[in-house]
Amino acid sequence: MTLLDQPGTARASDDPDGSRTITIVDPQDGSPVGTVHSADEADVAGAVEAAVRASEAWAATPPAARGALLHAMADGLAARADEVAALNTRETGKPAGDARGGVDAAVGTLRQYAELGPLHRTHSLRGADVAVDYTRPEPRGVVAAITPWNDPVAVAAGLIGAALVTGNTVVHKPSERCPHVGALLGEIWSAPLPDGVLTTVTGDGRTGAALVRSAAVHAIAHVGSTATGQAIAAEALHTGAHLVLENGGNDALLVDADVDPVWAAGQAALGAYANSGQICTSVERVYVHADVAEEFVAALVAEAERWNADGMAPLVDTRMRAEVHRQVSAAVAGGARVLTGGKIPAGSGAHYPATVVVDVASTDDLMREETFGPVAPVQVVASFEDGLNRAVASRYGLAATVLTGSLEHTTEAIRRLPVGTVKVNAVFGGAPGGAAEPRGASGRGFGYGPELLDEMTTRKVVHIGRPVLRARG
Predict the structure, then answer these.
(1) CATH topology of domain 252-424
(2) Which of 51, 365, 407, 439 lies at 20 to 30 Å from 162 by C-alpha?
């Protein structure tokens, strides 16, 4: 198993001189974006060694000074926001507005950690009156940040910002599906920092494998697929690196009998089709109460057709599209029905339509696995309890949404859903800094918010007793 997904429309190649490169094409129309170097083991070792050399001085830098440099990183990104967003759209197909929103979110995240870092503290402890007891936060050392393609700027800002402001040095490995974006971020963000504090290595799965195998890496923060996260965890068993993993999800949406089915369909469509379904917390499976199922499904089909008419953004590449279509086709072969969408369109690029599938079996991959495409698979359930039982039965534990007017059903769902985030009556949203801890196959550790500062540090317990001084003559 490779440690990072191999590219689809991103083509990796070994050059005659022994070097490796990755070529990216635009998923919108198949036009070339460019070619980047794919770091080998020697390149990775050099990046880690540089991080190690810079580590002691960076850890000794006052937190306020580190925070000021994060503000400088944010300033640099803000000054080139349009450039970064446009490159993201070309490389991943992310809609222009969403791409710019991701850059703006990254700027805000860097500023948030710039302010939170100097305030990060642990606890005083109650001991003897004549002693002082407390815990001291210390950086872990070298952090490997391995970031995804679906929100590459905002996610990288969070992981890198939290690691740097707490005194760690960072080696950043962006997804091989957006190496140009990753390299540009590295150029912008490393500019105000001392040498070696932040290094970017672009490459494929072999690059990622070399990075996480390094014994000099003390923590690994990864956002990406479950298979990759599991492979990273296996390597960490040998190196002892601390892990922060946000991996795949199979997020359920429960539609209760008492809600407006047209409103609920709008929520389902937003959850399933935003960013062409390529969001970690996208709606992946829908359980709708039989009392409102007919109206809900009709409204969901209308919503899907509206999204298609407005123009769906492409998937990141044709390999991703092939996997989405495989899941849909396998469900249809098992008896499911496609009410709209479900066909690969003619022409270049990696487009796939907003799709509604009904009569899906619980054993189909479309209901069991992360699809990461604009597909809303629907099951009709006889009761809220039936839907909740089905929602609970998943190896993933990222997030889930409940649409209901019942306080009883709300509290029962919150209690029983084995996920890091439960959303009631809204598929997206929530207060800033609301860090969540994924469960099961979806990962471990807090990947966002103030809690990420705790993940990036260790705690040392300190006891200072009263000395007995030598008597003076």
Answers:
(1) Aldehyde Dehydrogenase; Chain A, domain 2 (3.40.309)
(2) 439
